[in-house]
Amino acid sequence: MKLRFTIGALALAALATACAGAKPARSQTITSTAQPASALNHAARILAQQGMSVARIDEQAGIIQSAWQATRFGYGMTSASAGVPRYITRRATITVMPKGNGSEVFVRVEDMACANPDAFIAGDATVADCRAVAGIVPPDQKLLDRIGSALARALGVAPSRTAVRRSATAQ
Predict the structure, then answer these.
(1) Which domain covers residue 90, as residue numbers?
(2) How many CB atoms lie within 10 A of CB 34?
(3) Contacts from 6-14 at CB under 8 Å and sequence distance 24+?
(4) pLDDT of residue 120
(5) Integer Cα distance of 66 and 74 in angstroms
(6) Each residue's pLDDT tens digit, 83-134
(7) How many whole angstroms separate alpha carbon 65 and alpha carbon 47?
(8) Phi, psi for 96 (deg, rounded to 5)
(9) Where do runs of H (alpha helix) occur along 90-136?
(10) What is the pLDDT of residues 44-62, one digit of tens each?
(11) Alpha helix (H) ranges present in the chain?
(12) Which of 63 and 23 is assigned the larger pLDDT?
């Protein structure tokens, strides 16, 4: 009886993971009349409003990146240590490039699946048993949409299909 319950529980967990799996990564592009320095300042504020702390700002390169953040969103099992669940850890990257008299802003969220639900990643070095996820999980797509929409509004761009473009990106 216990074996049948365990097999059933594992099958249910596999089905739930497959249904809640990562979707192809999407990014958002916003074209604005705001100058790059102003767009970077708005980006830092928007990340903070979304509960993400800023880990790195490179004003010269036009990049702002949040710290990796543990989400406790379950994402499959480890292969190295069978039966140990993985959890999503995420970060946002916003890149601002000069374009004409304004700027073009690219917003992206990336996910890592980690064996430790409270895993963190220092810079780009993996601190825990983590692996890259091809795409992002649905809650993080919603986060990306919120960041993109809030940033578009802050930059004076009406969030529309032409102002905020979603584009599939390969990771």
Answers:
(1) 2-168
(2) 22
(3) 13/77
(4) 65
(5) 21
(6) 778 888 899 999 999 999 999 999 999 998 888 777 666 665 556 678 888 8
(7) 9
(8) -120, 125
(9) none
(10) 999 999 999 999 999 999 9
(11) 2-19, 36-49, 138-154
(12) 63
Tokens of 144: 């990306």
b/e for 102-113, b at 16 or more Cβ within 10 A?
bbbbbbbbbbbb
Q: Are 108 and 63 in contact (CB under 8 A)?
A: no
Tokens of 8: 């059933």
Q: Find tokens 């928007």 and name the residue.
A: 46
User: For residue 35, what are its two tokens?
Assistant: 């100058």
Q: How many domains are contained in the chain?
A: 1
What is the per-residue pLDDT for 163? 40
d(CA 4, CA 9): 9
Any idea which residue has 């529309």 for tokens? 160
The model's pTM: 0.75
List the helix and strand counts (H, then E) for the chain.
Answer: 3, 10
What pLDDT, on a 0 to 100 scale, did the predictor assign at position 17? Answer: 40
Where residue 66 sits, what CATH number does that domain have? 3.30.530.50
**Tokens describing residue 24:** 């192809």
**Rg for the chain, CA atoms, rounded:** 18
- Angle at CA of residue 67, ends 63 and 69, nearest 5°: 140
Q: Cα–Cα distance between 51 and 70 in angstroms, integer?
A: 12
